[in-house]
Amino acid sequence: MVIEKHPEYWWQYKAWPDIVAHAKKNDIAILPLGSIEWHGPHLPTGHDTIQLFPMLESVAARTGAMLLPCPWYGAHPCHHFGVPGTIPMRNETMVNVVKDIVHGASLAGFNKFILFFGHGQIAMASYAVQELGLEGYFVASVMFQNLVKDVQFQIMEKGFWHADESETSIGLYTHPEFVDMSKAVKEDPAPPLVDARFFQGVSEAATCKPMAWHDFTLLRPEGQLVAEGATGVFGDATIATREKGEKYVKVIVDRMVEFVNHIHERYPAGVKPFTL
Fold first, then answer.
1. Domain of 260?
2. How far apart are CA 117 and CA 205, in angstroms?
3. Based on the structure, what is the number of domains in the chain?
4. Is 131 inside a domain boundary?
5. End-to-end alpha-carbon separation of the chain, Å?
6. C-alpha span between 81 and 222 (Å, rounded)
7. How many of the other CB atoms lie within 10 Å of CB of 215?
8. What is the spatial distance between Cα 32 and Cα 121, in angstroms, rounded to a whole number?
9. Which residues pair with 104 in a beta bridge?
10. Is 1 part of a structural domain of the chain?
């Protein structure tokens, strides 16, 4: 897989008549949702956002979906607040941003929307999906880690956490110019506030645990962790490689392509999945 930059897939580089014409052929629009937050001393604070562009450009090249301009900021779990380098948005702010983007894009003829992200803003995205559904919009929310749960330990040595082997490997593949492996460290994740037997981690497949990691107050505030010397790495960044990142991204892209094509085949351009 070769990563290339293709401005022609992005809404912001097109004139409005071309956008309207595009929707008549393919009315699926993908909205990348990023974040600005600490990712250790070796990854850029924009990692969660930058990584999305080459992934989705590959998806657009193979499906014809439109890529919407990306909000660089994102919603955050409560423990992310109070950290230097992190600029969190409140859930209600991001819900309104997402809703306004969908409202605006629909005026050009787009009828199906996919929110695509790798940052832990599941609660916000799920709420936006439900709110927009009440207004008659078809919206899907995809956190890309869910696409690779079954191959996580075939590609990576550890489970996905933060600024760790997985995220650093992705960065080495999608934006190596911003990754400084000389500063990569191994740091044990902060202990969760309840035992792991009670919640499903990011990389865990189906379990009978009563909660997912985003269903409760997971950690102490990360601002406290900074004061105690934490770097923002939750795991082992030193074992990351570009090769792992390439394999990982390929699975994400292939499975997103399958999903987007499924929507397009079931509901061709101009056909709404449902109406109120």
1. 7-266
2. 19
3. 1
4. yes
5. 42
6. 7
7. 14
8. 12
9. none
10. no
User: What string of pLDDT tens digits covers the 276 residues of the chain?
Assistant: 445 556 789 999 999 999 999 999 999 999 999 999 999 999 999 999 999 999 999 999 999 999 999 999 999 999 999 999 999 999 999 999 999 999 999 999 999 999 999 999 999 999 999 999 999 999 999 999 999 999 999 999 999 999 999 999 999 999 999 999 999 999 998 899 999 999 999 998 878 899 998 999 999 999 999 999 999 999 999 999 999 999 999 999 999 999 999 999 999 999 999 999
Confidence (pTM): 0.95
CA trace torsion 54, 57, 62, 66 (10° rounding): 150
Residue 274 belongs to a domain: no
In this structure, is residue 276 part of a structural domain?
Answer: no
User: In angstroms, rounded to a whole number, what is the distance separating the alpha carbons of residues 1 and 144?
Assistant: 18
Measured in whole angstroms, the distance separating CA 67 from the mean position of its chain's CA atoms is 14
Check which CATH number belongs to the domain holding 63 and give it. 3.40.50.10310
